[in-house]
Amino acid sequence: MPRVEQNNSSSIPTSLHYALTDSQCGKCGGQLEWSPEFDDINQPKYTSEHCNEEYAIYIDTVKVEIVASKQGEDEEKVISLQEEPRAIRMADGMKLEEGEQK
Predict the structure, then answer these.
(1) DSSP states of 61-94 as a string?
(2) Residue pair 15/60 in contact by the 8 Å Cβ criterion
(3) pLDDT digits (tens, 9 = 90+) for 12-47
(4) I want to staple 57 with a disulfide (CB 3.0 to 4.6 A). Which of 43, 46, 96, 101 is the partner?
């Protein structure tokens, strides 16, 4: 487990899971327990206190992935787009009929 050193500005990036589960106190080597602090959306972080020292993990980068695609919704959109011109033609036809009846 990595020990956290004070003011280590050249820290090596690591996975969030690894940082949250395997970080140790820099003084005694005890396991750190982290609390999420997401109040500031511009700088979300996890904080911990141990041996009268405060620790923080700042979340700088994230990875966004598509985990599932809902094919049915896409097909419904395609069907509705295909039917739209027909509906417009019907409305135009009804306008013409109303114009002829006047």
Answers:
(1) ----------HHHHHHHHHHHHHHHHHHHHHHHH
(2) no
(3) 567 888 888 889 998 999 999 999 999 988 889 999
(4) 46
